[in-house]
Design goal:
mainly beta; single chain; 8 strands; eight-stranded antiparallel β-barrel; globular
């Protein structure tokens, strides 16, 4: 009988947990994305307004169009691709937000394999 009483309490407690997801604050601004490649820490800086994202990576500047699907999901398409791989669009989905950071999932449109990362907002535009 005690087990039957504990189960509803556990279910109620678990259902009260809400993941913060205030994506509108991250539609525009200046951002930083840090990650590792072969054990070396890399940083990409980018600016995004409602329709354009300008990325600076290792001294290279690249521009992509931004098409918002909803407040938390958008599609990037490079404006000046240098090869076939760069011609493919990238699906970006904000999973959680917390203060000035957000965790996101990204991958090529139509491809099941996705990667995750965390971005920090440095300032508004």
């Amino acid at each position: 009988m005690k087990k039957l009483l504990i189960l509803p309490i556990l279910i109620l407690t678990a259902s009260c947990y809400n993941v913060e997801r205030d994506c509108k604050d991250f539609k525009t601004g200046k951002f930083k994305f840090e990650y590792e490649v072969d054990g070396i820490k890399k940083t990409t800086y980018f600016e995004r307004n409602d329709s354009i994202e300008i990325e600076n990576y290792d001294g290279k500047i690249d521009t992509a169009s931004v098409r918002w699907v909803n407040d938390c999901e958008y599609v990037l398409k490079k404006l000046h691709p240098k090869n076939m791989a760069e011609e493919k669009s990238i699906d970006m989905k904000i999973l959680t937000t917390s203060g000035d950071t957000y965790t996101f999932e990204f991958g090529m449109v139509g491809v099941a394999q996705k990667q995750r990362g965390t971005v920090t907002k440095l300032s508004d535009l």
